[in-house]
Every structure is written in structure tokens, then in C-alpha cells.
Amino acid sequence: MSMQMKEYVTRTVVVALKDEVVAFNVPELRERFYELLEEGVRQFVVDLSDVTFMDSAGMGLLVSVLKRARQEGGDVKLVLPRAEGARRIFALTKFDRVFDVAETAETAVRLF
Fold first, then answer.
1. pLDDT per residue over 12-62, tens digit each?
2. CB count, 10 Å around CB of 34?
């Protein structure tokens, strides 16, 4: 699992997650997202295009970050995974009804 960030002038941060987002690495990811919120970031694009697998803890992380961001007047947009298995989870859980989703980070940034 790795994490890269790219900040836009609008205080939108693109967080690109890779590989597996599972219970093992969720605490570290949650801590980093919350640190960004404390630093004043309110708009997140979570780029999941390179995520190969996500378990329920990973899905819970996304919901948790969404709730915190919205409490602070922000929002979270998602870039859907390219891996079919990971993408199917998003369809089954209907996450596209909770989050605005896009195919690329650039498109997701424009959703704000």
C-alpha cells in the first residue's frame, strides 16, 4: 500500500491509494486523512484507480472521511478503481449514490 498526494490551488488534495486498502492499513490512512483535515484541507479526491482490493474496513474509511469532511464544510469525490473486482464492490454497495465518482482525478477535481 502506498499513498501519494497532489494539492491543487483550491485546497483540494488528490490522495492516490494503491494496491490493497484493508483493515491492516486503514488506521494509518485514517490518521493521515484526519491530519490533513486538521491542516485545513476540506476537499479530497480519493484516487482509487490503482487499488486492487478493498475490504469493508477500507469502505468504512471512505465513509468516515466523507462524514468528517462534510462536518467541516468539505466533500470527498472518488476516482473508481480500474480493477474489475474492486470496481464491482463499489457497484454492489451503491457507493456512487453516496459519493460523486469519476474516471480520472482531473475530472473528479472539476466536480467541486
1. 899 999 999 999 999 999 999 999 999 999 999 999 999 999 999 999 999
2. 13
Give the domain range for residue 70. 2-109
Number of independent structural domains in the chain: 1
User: b/e string for 76-103 if b means 16 or more Cβ within 10 A?
Assistant: bbbbbbebeebeebbeeeebeeebebbe
The single-letter DSSP state of residue 80 is P
pTM tops 0.85, yes or no: yes
Q: What is the three-class DSSP state of 16?
A: strand
What CATH code is carried by the domain that includes residue 84?
3.30.750.24
pLDDT in tens, 69-109: 999 999 999 999 999 988 888 889 999 899 999 999 999 99
Whether the Cβ atoms of residue 48 and residue 78 lie closer than 8 Å to each other? yes
